[in-house]
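Still learning. Any example?
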Amino acid sequence: MRVYLDNAATTAVDKEVVEAMLPYLQNTFGNPSSIHSFGREAKSAIEKSRKKVAELLGTAPAQIFFTSGGTEADNCAIHSIEQHKIRQAITSPLEHHAVIHTLEHLAKSGHFELKILEVDKQGNLNLDQLNTWLDQNPKSFVSLMQGNNEIGNLNPVDEIAARVSEKGGIFHSDTVQTVGHFHHNLQSWKTHFMVGSAHKFHGPKGTGFLYVSPDVKINPLIYGGAQERNMRGGTENVCGIVGLSKALEIAYAEMEAHKAHITGLKQFMIERLVAEIPEISFNGRCADMENSLYTVLNVSLPPSDMNEMLIFNLDVNQIAASGGSACSSGSEVGSHVLRAIGVAPERGAVRFSFGKYNTKAEIEFAVQALARMYARKPLEV
């Protein structure tokens, strides 16, 4: 058996999505900027996709801009700090590098001060500190993710967005791990920016979107053409955009069934791991089923000589998982999220993330493989 439990990194493309994309690779291949019929057909496909995405998210098509993925969308939103003459930006140490590294880079200009919220050992944000900073400097740019890609924590972004908006600030949320897995209604959510990436919900890689509230204006991040209503230069990824739209449509249609299925797998894995491996625990709030992504489980394993090669050994046992964020796998730096919440470095950490194609048999296979690995005598610490 070969088991894929790294769905937070990327998901398998749904067959219906592939079928929807194929005509735009084979027949409707025109450049959407061309005025002839081939180009008009491609342009029409993009606009139909934009309308569908907007409809599912509860907003107007004019507020959706297609990008190459979540990282570009995050960057585009964050670069608006300079345009809006923001003097204070607030984020957390648990954000994706697409957010943290971009904010750090822009802060070097000296035009604004970057403040990092305190977090506790469970990854809970210090919201009192956030409120204090907003009181001191109301017109702040606040960037906090909805669901953490490593430890699965869900943040109260509705509450945070309302508070930031009330103060006259700008709120951006990296929603890459929640789009397609949770319902979003942008008519009621007071966020200014949110993002999505198709490959996180069984769509193609290399395609994402940025939602921009009508209350804010931004400049392009990429220049060179009039595409995306003059907001993103470059010929559009037509088949990717069609695939994103179709994947999101499927995700919304089947969301409750998939949530029930995946939640059951996650709960089953928690129970089986606790039964099979002494001293096991879970990082962040990922084992709190009501307050975490139902797709993510970050397992903390006892000190062992297995920990250094944990992900490699799982791969040898035909199990794909992650030691943290997929974007930093292969790095020797380790997880900035686990460091921020003070996870003991001698403990092993592995993120299992689930998708709609996983089965209970696969979960049991992974648990048994992990149990065999940790049946060896643990290290003395």
Notes: Residues 255-276 form the longest helix (22 residues).
